[in-house]
Amino acid sequence: MTDKLRTAFDAQENACDMLGSPLTRDVVGLCHENFNRGGIIAKLVRGWQGDPLNDNVPLRLAGFAHYQALSGDENLARFYESCGGLYQAADRPDLAIALDGVFQREEAAARRFLRSAPQTNETGRAAMLLLGFSEVSKRLGLPLRLREMGASAGLNLFFDQFHYRLAMDEGTLLWGDETSPLTLAATWRGGPNVRATPLQLSEKIDIASRRGCDLFPVNIQNPQERLKLQSWVWGDMPARRARLLAALAIADKAPPEIDRADAAGWVAAQIMQRPKGAATVLYHSIVWPYLGVSQRFAIESAFAQAAEDVRPDAPLVWLKMDGRELGTIARLSYRLWTGENGPEGEEVIIGPCHPHGEDLEINDDFNPV
Ligand SMILES: C[S@@+](CC[C@H](N)C(=O)[O-])C[C@H]1O[C@@H](n2cnc3c(N)ncnc32)[C@H](O)[C@@H]1O
């Protein structure tokens, strides 16, 4: 187990380096050193039940340190930009002392925190999903009944209230309310069909209702859960933090309903009964790899069953920004059942995209509406 923990620390340090977070890299590196000399970190994680790499043990430790900084631990807060501080390489020895201190003082709280897996809600993914929502809205001309599985805190259920700045081959495409607290910037590279006909997004996308599910929903009205969500965004990544806070401010106006449920049963319940006058859009982003074979089968079977009975006034859509397995490429696609296109419906593959929603490569044969 000791070797596995060391491997997990090494892998996470390298990942933080590559992803541009010197602070998190050094927090993880210092936890690793503390672990090696049998300090408080060894006491907390030695004998970890499970796979330390898959369970993201180093990130759980880093998340706890950030959570304490955000909660007002002054010794740590001075290193975190998220708390108004700053971290430089020369601060490493002082950071080591602050980390050791917080884990010693808050050992019981750390044990509780380490039980939960890192859980983010990446609003950048809305900059990919938007194209799917827009296409569906234009094709069906109905308000969308949004149902998101694996919604986390449910922030992407408010995608229509974000402002988008999309860099395309032809120039910048803007969408949404420019006074929104949240502007998402992404790149959409277009295939030939898109270039021949400039892509036009639906001017306004009407939403009939919003609801999600998650095995571990984040309740943004609970101050501890809200802070925990923030603690998973690395403390020296101010742009990501600003995006999260802006999205929270939008969601605060009408906090989303996120059911605590396994996607398998929940999807069936949401798509079988569809109210007339709205298009039911079941969607997800980076959730499929987390599902087991039986859950995937249950969801596919639910769609197959629902597809037998679709009428034009209550169409059904399955929109995915997802991959098959963790680490594989994500892809934006949707399948649409109108009641007039048979039980197979119509599948539209838009193209591969970055898992955090930074860019989308639109397929050559995608024909936008
Ligand atoms: C990588 S996160 C993505 C969250 C959100 N979709 C986003 O794009 O920010 C995966 C989410 O799927 C949830 N999840 C995993 N297995 C699930 C299941 N069987 N049923 C419902 N939610 C699940 C996790 O709790 C987590 O919130």
Structural account:
Helices cover 40% and strands 18% of the residues. With 369 residues, the protein is an alpha/beta fold. Strands 6-5-1-7-8-9-10 form a seven-stranded mixed β-sheet, sandwiched between helices. A hairpin with an 8-residue loop joins strand 9 (330-337) and strand 10. Helix 2 (22-36) packs across helix 6, helix 4 (57-70) packs across helix 10 and helix 12 packs parallel to helix 13 (293-307). It is globular and about 65 Å long. The model has no long low-confidence stretch (mean pLDDT 95). S-adenosylmethionine is lined by residues 119-122, 125, 149-152, 213-216, 262-263, 285-287, 290-291, 295.
Give a quick precis of the structure:
By secondary structure, the chain is of the alpha/beta class. It has 13 helices and eleven strands. The N and C termini lie far apart (54 Å).
Topology of this protein?
Layout: H1 2-18, H2 22-36, H3 40-45, H4 57-70, H5 74-77, H6 92-105, H7 107-114, H8 126-140, E1 144-149, E2 163-168, E3 171-175, E4 183-189, H9 192-196, E5 207-214, H10 223-231, H11 238-252, E6 258-260, H12 263-272, E7 279-285, H13 293-307, E8 316-322, E9 330-337, E10 346-353, E11 359-361
Parallel strand pairs: 1-5, 1-7, 2-4, 4-11, 5-6, 7-8
Antiparallel strand pairs: 2-3, 8-9, 9-10
Helix pairs in contact: 1-2, 2-4, 2-6, 4-10, 12-13
The protein binds S-adenosylmethionine (SAM).
S-adenosylmethionine is lined by residues 119-122, 125, 149-152, 213-216, 262-263, 285-287, 290-291, 295.
